[in-house]
């Protein structure tokens, strides 16, 4: 939002010190803040266990939890002991169940970008300029979208551990799909050949559809994709998994940066029918995934093992029962 505000304030700055130079220079400030913040960032409990520092891991858990954390620490130590028998090589990471997890994570992060949010964030001025015939309006309403996405993220913070990750992703995808359809329909009917033929209501309805899209992204697919990908990989492959899925996110980011301007120039608002389709895929993905709410990272690893091999796990459970009750 601050970046959008800065761009709006500096849009009329003339050469030789054009506003775009100041906008880029301003990125030094958050960069410095990240460097300083990184110095004081504590290690995670699982990292500390990997480094042979269980006492520090316990103190870290006590800072995060109000309940007894000894059982959780025991699970972390147990998984670390099991994982320490192998090195977690790239060959192992790219095979078997780990490869399936990687495919799921890459799909989630690609869809998070291809759902269309950055078409509004990057090309908002172009879209609003076509709606209102005013370049300044484009910068102003892009700032409004930035404000909306901040406040719309707040419900996700409170609902993620109550409703669950996949539930929020389902509603988010359905909402984005609906808003994309509204925007495509209005654009097709009322803004053909850059001529507004339906009156002011069409402009404001399209604006509300864009804000609605932003709201639905902000509480669902925006944050939940990152949460889910951070939870799904086993400990010894988590670093590789999160890094690989983050790369996939940026591949999608590159595509969404280059393709929508070309699509919008050639197809106009019909471009948003594409996002109806991609959000349909987002909905299908969210409906297919198991829920990770209320589970520790170790329990999530076990859950995916059951999910990938339901028959084998059922046979193992039956064998355990038989051994206890002959």
Explain what you see.
The chain has 326 residues and is an all-alpha fold. It has a domain at 96-294: Growth Hormone, Chain: A (Up-down Bundle), CATH 1.20.1250. The protein has 17 helices and no strands. It has helices at 2-9, 19-25, 28-40, 45-50, 54-64, 70-83, 90-93, 96-114, 117-132, 135-159, 165-190, 200-219, 221-231, 235-267, 272-288, 297-308, 310-324. Helix 8 (96-114) runs parallel beside helix 14, helix 10 (135-159) runs parallel beside helix 12 and helix 16 (297-308) crosses helix 17. The longest helix has 33 residues, at 235-267. The protein is globular, with a radius of gyration of 24 Å. Mean pLDDT is 87; it is low at 319-326.
Keywords:
mainly alpha; Growth Hormone, Chain: A; 17 helices; disordered C terminus; Hexose transporter 1; membrane; MFS_dom; transmembrane helix
Mind sketching the topology for me?
Blueprint: H1 2-9, H2 19-25, H3 28-40, H4 45-50, H5 54-64, H6 70-83, H7 90-93, H8 96-114, H9 117-132, H10 135-159, H11 165-190, H12 200-219, H13 221-231, H14 235-267, H15 272-288, H16 297-308, H17 310-324
Helix pairs in contact: 1-10, 8-13, 8-14, 8-15, 9-10, 9-12, 9-14, 10-12, 11-12, 11-13, 11-15, 12-13, 16-17
Short description:
With 326 residues, this protein is an all-alpha fold. It has 17 helices and no strands.
